[in-house]
Amino acid sequence: MHIHVVNHPLVQHKLSLLRAAEISTNKFRMLTDELARLLAYEATRDLPLEPVTIDGWCGPVDVQQIKGKKMTVVPILRAGIGMLNGVLDLVPSAKISVVGLARNEETLQPEPYFEKFVGDLDDRLALIIDPMLATGGSLVATIDMLKRKGCKEIKAIVMVAAPEGVKLVNEAHPDVQIYAASLDSHLNEHGYIIPGLGDAGDKIFGTR
Ligand code: URA
């Protein structure tokens, strides 16, 4: 499976706090932000570097800089917005592409109701963000859209993944790496991840 479960103690501790039943909106939002930052740190670990010589305080100094990699962060509406600031803290110059998907009640497939992609997608790394990878339908649809627009390098950052969703994404898009704080047990009959976090969108926006 192309899933990187980030076992860093800070990630696991923050995830444990997120799982509490009586967590406040404020705390859930804050922890989501912090987790997004730590997961983005892992997801950007293999960005290519290049040697550069700069003027240092004592003369020329050879340093390593990120090799002109352009990025787009892709929050999936609505819950993905909760992870956006955390990721942008690490990659402040990244451009933002937004995708909104709703289930077509006849086909049961996710269909876009909103999409606004930045340009030059063929030249960018896309970091898709969505707190919960449940069935995987939305993530697969988002990757489909990005690839149709020419994007060649795509990673997904989620807080919690279900094996069902990881399998669907791996089968449809084996080139896409997934970063998560946890690979949980399974989906229940309502499509919620068990043990999961409940409805992450409701908890981030305070609509539960
Ligand atoms: N979306 C959520 O917010 N939670 C789940 O458990 C599954 C999908």
Helix amount? 25-40%
What is the name of the CATH architecture? Answer: 3-Layer(aba) Sandwich
Spans of 5+ residues with little confidence (pLDDT < 50)? none
Strand arrangement in the largest pleated sheet: 1-12-10-8-4-5
- Distinct ligand kinds: uracil
E-strand count: 15
What does the secondary structure layout of this molecule look like, with pairings?
Elements: E1 3-5, H1 9-18, H2 25-43, E2 49-56, E3 59-66, E4 70-75, H3 84-90, E5 95-96, E6 98-103, E7 110-116, E8 124-129, E9 132-133, H4 137-148, E10 153-157, E11 160-161, H5 163-172, E12 177-180, E13 182-183, E14 186-187, E15 193-194, H6 200-205
Parallel strand pairs: 1-12, 4-5, 4-8, 8-10, 9-11, 10-12, 11-13
Antiparallel strand pairs: 2-3, 6-7, 14-15
Helix pairs in contact: 1-2, 2-3
The protein binds uracil.
Uracil binds at residues 79, 132, 134, 191-193, 196, 199-201.
